[in-house]
Amino acid sequence: MNTRLYTENQIVQESIFTALIQLMQKKEFHNITITEITEKAGVSRMSYYRNYSSKEDILIKYLDRIFDEYLTELLRLKKCTKYDIAKIYFSNMRRHKQFWITVIRSNISYLIPQKVDIYINDLFEKYFRSEYHPKAFKEYIFDYYAGGLYKTSVKWIQNGMKESDEEMAELICRLSDFIEIL
Prior knowledge:
Layout lengths: L1 H23 L9 H8 L3 H7 L3 H21 L6 H14 L1 H9 L6 H16 L7 H24 L6 H12 L6
Helix pairs in contact: 1-2, 1-4, 4-5, 4-7, 5-9, 7-8
């Protein structure tokens, strides 16, 4: 029974997310109402508020799913290189291409850097040697990478993701070689 409820809740969340993305493709994010989302999703307002506290919350929870998927894929690797981390990152972004395009075109990409910061921090803690740098210095390194990765990703999406995932991974590796922290 719990599995069934969990599955029904996932269906509700997916319906709400899909409805929001479809509405965002036709209308400004800030002009979309909860009523429009629930009607398009075919769910009640109660179902909406049981799962989300705001429209931004819908996107933030989806971002969490995307980044959790990314980290899970990395954890499957026995040995993880800078190239692997970057390639899997861009491959993951390509899989969710429509989401990224919609968020960036809707001028709500301000939601993304906070999540990138959190996940870059997790990556550094799991994969990178940090014993050589004081804590304060590590924070600057996290911010440098998170900001650079975010801006590079946005530019790549805005340019139509023309470069392959492999080309983007190579670019990120070359850029990261400028500061030798790995």
